[in-house]
Amino acid sequence: MSADDICTETEIRELVHAFYGKARADAALGPIFESQVHDWDEHLQILSDFWSAVLLGTRRFSGMPMPKHAAMPNLSAELFERWLALWRETTDALPNRALADAAQEMAKRMARSLWYGYQLSRDPNQPLTELRSA
Q1: Could you tell me the end-to-end alpha-carbon distance of the chain, in angstroms, rounded to an integer?
Q2: Angle of CA points 84, 8, 87, to nearest 5°
């Protein structure tokens, strides 16, 4: 299956909007997102571009997620695990199983990478801890 067969841009946009609607309403994640995101329309477009790049290989996204996440205060494994659980819940509801499976796999990899980077940015001499749901 080629990247073109996984999903459409519309499906990506709908997934991003559905997921971040849930994340913003979540008791644990909502306050973090609301403190970091000042223009949701712009942020949702950036996230749609990001997921388009990840899932379809488009080149619209040019940001650097690692430094932005590493700079955030008080992140924890539990918050990354909550993000993954909400992502899985959102993607499990998708009728497009190819999109759901690809998005879940990529989200696991990204969460693990961002969590490792976050830990290393805080204390590079401490052993890394794993995410339970990744």
Answers
A1: 24
A2: 10
